[in-house]
Amino acid sequence: MIKRILGVLSITMAGPVAAADDWRVFTRAESFSYSEANPVTAFIDFLVGPAPEDGELAFTRNLIESGVGYKNVEFSLIHRNDYNLYFSRGASQFAYLNKNRKTIPYGQRYDVDVWGNQYQVSGAKFGFTLPFGKSVDVHVAYSHLYGTEAVSGYLGKDPNGEGGYISMIAVQEGNNTVRRLDGDLYTDYFFTDDPLFRNSVDAPTGRGYAVDLGFTWKMSDRLTLDVMVLDLAGELRWKNMPHIVAEATSENFQTDPDGVVSVVPNFRGTETYDDFTQDLTRRTSADLTYIYNQFVFAYSHDRMSRSEFNRVSAGYLWGEHRKWGLHLAGDVTTAAVELRLAMPVGDLYFTTDDLDIDNAHTLGFGWNLNFRF
User: What is the pTM of this model?
Assistant: First the structure.
């Protein structure tokens, strides 16, 4: 997968230490989505689109940040929206048929196993860079966060390992044979907006933090290693958050005139308000960059949302102090390609694995712009 590519480490903190009396204002953004089974647009549109392929995960990371920096210190305001979803093949197949109003075949059992963790937060971030000797800079950032939206939990088998399925069956009612859903789904989730039973609630505001840590090692005049861990430590704490533990069985499923299946808000279970600590999704990256005259070659390893990606790239620099550049990168696993433009004020990039955006499983764009005065 192609990762942030906003300039190494630039999403969460400053680049090289600024010169004396060097003020700057900056804006950074990243929107990056990856979906194994469905195109990204179908994932975002609740699986409306083409039939799913093999795959068990989908996620999106979105961040926008604006702030001011002086020398090696930065202060910024941030907004983030991350969504991580892991699922069984049966769950994606049934959801596709249902959402796209396809005929659900009789007798086909769809095993359901779904885990999701989504959060939307805003807050403030303080970051700084500490030089160690002449070749190493250590980067640290702390974010104070306020959560405005979240869903986190599980849908599938019950704690005893039973249930976790749904299927369409034929039932004889008098002289007629009718279609009916048969299933047994256990769920346990916290939420601010109920995704399953559609209950209306008064949601709380979450409070939390995130700590990022990394370093830049200038191994030689031409070779640089950057390592970064985003959300090395971090969490969101919710007080009196809506919490449902329930079991939806055959009598809870209903089919509308268009054939779309939904769950009626009658269930065996409980709805309570409980304190909840939500984990943030850690992201680790390592970037090795080699510059030879006006040419740049790089290898990057990125791990996020239970996925690992490896990227190779090449670029060409030109202009005074080589401030302009064009970089082309490719991921060896997903075959995604990224084009990045380097400018005196920063970077712009676009990533995809298919020029037809509606069929892309990897999709991203972003910028990292700095204006000095």
Answer: 0.85
One-letter amino acid for residue 295 of the chain: F
Token pair, residue 147, equals 């959560």
> Do 341 and 315 touch, CB atoms closer than 8 A?
no
- Is the CB of residue 26 less than 8 Å from the CB of residue 12? no
Angle, CA of 55, 56 and 62, to the nearest 5°: 105
Tokens, residue 311: 């990227």
Give tens-digit pLDDT for 219-253: 999 999 999 999 999 999 999 999 999 987 766 56
Secondary structure element (H or E) that encloses residue 40, with its range = helix 40-44
H/E element holding 41? helix 40-44
Structure token pair of residue 209: 């933090």
264/253 Cα distance (integer angstroms): 6
Q: Which of 64, 77, 60 is nearest to 119 (CA)?
A: 60
Q: For residue 202, give every residue at least 6 positions away whose Cβ sits within 8 Å of its Cβ, in sequence order, or none.
A: none
Cβ atoms 157, 111 nearer than 8 A: no
